[in-house]
Amino acid sequence: MTKTIFKLGLAAFALGFAGQALAYAQLKSAISADKSTIKSSPGELDLTFTEGLNLKFSGIKVTGPDKASIKLDDPMLKQSDTVLMVPLSGMLGAGTYTVEWHALSTDGHKTNGSYTFTVKP
User: Fold this and answer.
1) Which of 18, 64, 97, 107 reaches 20 to 30 Å from 87, CA-CA?
2) Using an 8 Å Cβ cutoff, are 40 and 32 in contact?
3) Which fold has domain 25-119?
């Protein structure tokens, strides 16, 4: 009986942590999308998250094929604070670009990640 109660308590504990992990702002989709190939330089990158973001502590860094940082304009939030829109300052040439993102959800949880896309005119 004690083993069963212990196992049930452990399972409940694990499920509680799994629920918290799902509550963090995760990247849901992006334009330009992960591993996509696009025909021309985008004017902006739109990252959609599963939760609202705190703009002051959320952002991206974009590096080009030569590993140099790409100049970005000031980001803004759209659509109930779940879409981080970041304008690009200039045109992107052909090559693969890496987007590193970091986000602070409105409930105070931090997440980060990265993805790539390719410009192939």
Assistant:
1) 107
2) no
3) Immunoglobulin-like (2.60.40)
Q: Which residues contact 115 (CB under 8 A, 6 or more apart)?
A: 27, 30, 33, 34, 35, 98, 99
Are the C-beta atoms of residues 48 and 25 closer than 8 Å to each other? no
Domain range annotation of the chain:
25-119
What's the pLDDT tens digit per position in 50-102? Answer: 999 999 999 999 999 999 999 999 999 998 899 999 999 999 999 999 999 99
Rounded to two decimals, the pTM is 0.81
Note whether 117 and 37 are within 8 A (CB): yes
